[in-house]
Amino acid sequence: MEQVSIIGLDLAKRSFQAHGALADGGVAFRKKLSREKVLAFFAEQPRCVVAMEACGSAHHWGRTIRDLGHEVRLIPPAYVKPFVKRQKNDAADAEAIAEAAVRPTMRFVAVKTEEQQGRAMLFRTRDLMVRQRTQLINALRGHLSEHGVVAAQGPANVKVLAEAVEDQGQGTSLPLLVVELARVFLDQIEGLSKRISELEKVTVHEAACGETTRRLQTMPGVGPITALAIETFAPPMDVFKRGRDFAAWLGLAPRQHSTGGKQVLGKVSKMGQRDIRRLLIIGAMAVVRSASRKGAPEGSWLQRLLARKPKMLVAIALANKMARSIWAMLAKAEDYRVPVAAAA
Q1: Are residues 165 and 231 in the same domain?
Q2: CA distance 269 to 217
């Protein structure tokens, strides 16, 4: 077998496909591997570049293959698709991965550590439980509204529904079956609320332990959950040349449809890391609401924008500005500085 310079590996649950390419791009081998034989195969290979699509198990395999001495490159699947020739199969996918990985302008995904994946699981577990609680609350509100019991949205108003279910002597008469089913909903909501509270305590503890998360929380609108999400899901800031690149990676930069030298910009692209983008927008909206109530600093960028733009548009613009500032804070290892104080 000729020595290869790069191996494209198409990942799966049981059946893996490897494509070996020579330095000149020629095909060295095409080999199908079972899950049990993957590590033994790469242990026998000379040190080379191993490329994979950044899918669910890619970080685990990336760490394991990297420990064998190989250089690992993870590629977003959307960037691999243009290199697939005609028919879609495992061999064609592996070849496309190998071809995409040698492109000089290709963008790669950093291999996550086990600690990062653990924090990602913490973040997504809490997020899942919050969505489940919201579904239960809305379902209960919908069912009880058919019997004349109405409450506003949000976990804070579950108490109103619980009082209406348990107190049948204030002009409210619910059928026994409705009361019993409503109690099932209320028990589930209470259990999820307790678990969410416990996970939030763990999140605050994790965010307080790291220097990066502590630094991020010095920025208004960034709390423990947002700081932990940035540290977990964002790549090292040296990957980006400037703050705008990080904002574009999050999907907070305008979508371009330019041609013939004419710049045409649209709405934000939303093509990026959705969790961080959503949290930054939520944090920006909190800052905007606070500024609307208490007043923004005199002569500040936020005050000028609030005077002539809708609040939601200002929040999106502020989220973009926050993303650029986060890049500067992490790239320069500095805490957040208030713009007025920095200018002085």
Answers
A1: no
A2: 26
pLDDT confidence of 173, banded at 50, 70, 90? Answer: confident
Mean pLDDT of 206-233: 93
Residues 36 and 122 in one domain: no
Residues 6 or more apart whose Cβ sits within 8 Å of residue 334: 215, 328
The most distant pair of C-alpha atoms in the chain lies apart, rounded to whole Å, by: 85
Which residues span the domain enclosing 169?
Answer: 114-209
Q: What was the pLDDT predicted at 331? A: 93
3-state secondary structure of 168: coil
pTM of the complete model: 0.84
Neighbours of 320 (CB within 10 A): 24
CA 56 to mean position of chain CA atoms: 14
User: Looking at the structure, do residues 276 and 334 belong to the same domain, yes or no?
Assistant: yes
In a shared domain, residues 195 and 227 = no
Residue 269, pLDDT > 90, answer: no
What is the CATH number for 78? 3.30.420.40
Whether 125 and 60 map to the same domain: the answer is no
Same domain, 337 and 228: yes
d(Cα 56, Cα 63) in Å, to the nearest integer? Answer: 13
| 226 closest CA partner among 203, 202, 196 | 203
Task: List the Cα angle 300/305/306 in 5-degree steps.
Answer: 100
